[in-house]
Amino acid sequence: xxxxxxxSQAEFNKKRLAKTAGWVLLYHANETTREYxxxxxxxxxxxVGIPAYSYLDAPTQPEAGLALVRSPDGxxxxxxxxxxxxxVWDTESRQPSTIQVLGEIPPRFTTQAPTSPFDVWTGEMWVxxxxxxxxxxxxxxxxxxARLLEQASQRIQLLTDKLELNETQDSTxxxxxxxxxxxYRLQVDDIIPTGEALIWPAPPE
Length: 205
What we know:
single chain; alpha+beta; three-stranded antiparallel sheet; Phage tail protein
């Protein structure tokens, strides 16, 4: 008696339907991304086709930096740029994000990180907008000056109340502290913010 010592192999016609039932090695692609997702032996009945997103032709390893995917027309395997996991920066908002899909990096994004909140993308590199930086510094200094003046005025008012209402035994020391805060307030008021680096006076102890 003659025995079959190997699994029967399915054969397919031009319509990719099995002419004879048997086992076949199939290569599978993800339904959404078309990325290769593995191979398996499947048993195919006579007259039946192979499952969707499964293919008979074997792929080859893609080059470095590429992902293995099925072509949009489903006719072949091909390599597609794979930047998944890379951090890129939006050239308009400067915000970072991590690439999660296959394909080339969109033109709006770059792998170059900006070095300051005032960087502007030129199309090839980040360049700091010095005018914007200076305006931001000017606004920050103006707000800081206003806070210092407010704090000094509150302190002066409190010391004045204590002195006028005789709420302390040491009026000489109190008068000196009051004058120190008044001089400090004048020093702060004399500072003119310009957007350049400033040296602020130290408040009295």
